[in-house]
Amino acid sequence: MLPKVSLGLWHNFGSVDVYENAKSILFHAFDRGVTHFDLANNYGPVPGSAEITFGRVLKEGLGAHRDEMVISTKAGYIMWDGPYGVWGSRKHLIASLDQSLKRMGVEYVDIFYHHRPDPETPIEESMAALDQIVRSGKALYVGISNYKPAEARRAFEILREQKTPFIIHQARYNMFDRWVEDGLLDVTNEFGVGVIAFSPLAQGLLTNRYLNGIPEGSRMSKGGFLKPEALTDEKLARIIKLNEIATRRGQTLAEMALQWILRDQRVTSVLVGASSTAQLDTNLTVVEALEKNPLSAADLSEIESVLNGK
Ligand SMILES: NC(=O)c1ccc[n+]([C@@H]2O[C@H](COP(=O)([O-])OP(=O)(O)OC[C@H]3O[C@@H](n4cnc5c(N)ncnc54)[C@H](OP(=O)(O)O)[C@@H]3O)[C@@H](O)[C@H]2O)c1
């Protein structure tokens, strides 16, 4: 149901960003077959503004294709100060989704996620809230994000018991962060749940972006979630080696990094970010590469050696 490459609006679509650029990326994405757009209540900055941008783009034409799109949003991280502005109570999840629908100007989302597990609210309450949301018509399907294997199993058991249409787990997965291989992919597979891999390019590290320093305007230069400390000499050396493998295979590092994730049939889609249409185009080449330039066993083992620091 999802395209191999989906687009996320965590960065580059906030009120601090250039609206025309955001709009052109979204239209371009849809024209190129990206039918899935992923948001969350708090994406911006400022929190909420990515949903406002997206709603404006829908209003300015993209919304004519509403039935050809899968739109998702989430709640669970801090959204407002004061009571009920965070985590996974029924109160928070329902209030937050109502706000998201208003910001985007849509009547329903296709997927609503609980963004992260809540250590205090009983999981039964969060899952019952997801069920209520579907029954009320505000979401077609539900998903969870950032749940560890045992938490995901419990969530899926409850959702299955409630007969809630749960279809997806959204988890960080890239060459530098492979925690999902340690049990999560087995659990999702067992329950027939898809996995969408977020930050598949490690926020840009697994591209040519930082091969020659930290460019102005890049995510790392902006002092947000991707800190310069993440680019250690050791990591850069690995990125350079991976880039050499990609070049030899006749592809970009970004393309190879996405292809590496999609080598596993249990991963449904890679959820990329992009600050330009050109970046998105580079990332979309993976769709053809999957068929025409598959990773061989030798390629995979060479990549493995680099990732293991050999
Ligand atoms: N569920 C969760 O907790 C969670 C958490 C994080 C993200 N997400 C979702 O996952 C989505 C993607 O995350 P992400 O933005 O971290 O993904 P990513 O694809 O790993 O990183 C995207 C960034 O990498 C750079 N980039 C992308 N393609 C490039 C290319 N071809 N060449 C050079 N640089 C390139 C751009 O950074 P520059 O700005 O430097 O150009 C872009 O903004 C988010 O939008 C969100 O929807 C979910």
Compose a concise summary of this entry.
By secondary structure, the chain is an alpha/beta fold. It is built from 11 helices and 8 strands.
What is the number of helical segments per DSSP (H or I, 4+ residues)? 11
Sequence of strands across the biggest β-sheet: 1-2-3-4-5-6-7-8
Instruction: Report the count of strand segments.
Output: 8
Category by helix and strand content = alpha/beta
Distance between the termini: 38 Å
The CATH architecture is: Alpha-Beta Barrel
Question: Would you kindly provide a written description of the structure presented here, covering whatever features stand out?
Answer:
- The chain is α/β, with parallel strands linked by helices and 310 residues long.
- It has a single domain, classed as Alpha-Beta Barrel (TIM Barrel), CATH 3.20.20.
- It has eleven helices and eight strands.
- The chain has helices at residues 19-31, 49-59, 90-104, 123-135, 149-162, 184-191, 233-248, 253-262, 277-284, 286-292, 297-307, and strands spanning 5-8, 36-38, 70-75, 109-114, 139-145, 166-172, 194-198, 267-272.
- An eight-stranded parallel β-barrel has the order 1-2-3-4-5-6-7-8, surrounded by seven helices.
- Helix 3 (90-104) links the parallel strand 3 (70-75) and strand 4 (109-114).
- Helix 8 (253-262) crosses helix 10.
- The mean pLDDT is 97.
- Residues 8-12, 38, 115, 145-146, 170, 198-204, 207-209, 218-219, 254, 271-275, 279, 282-283 line the site of NADP nicotinamide-adenine-dinucleotide phosphate.
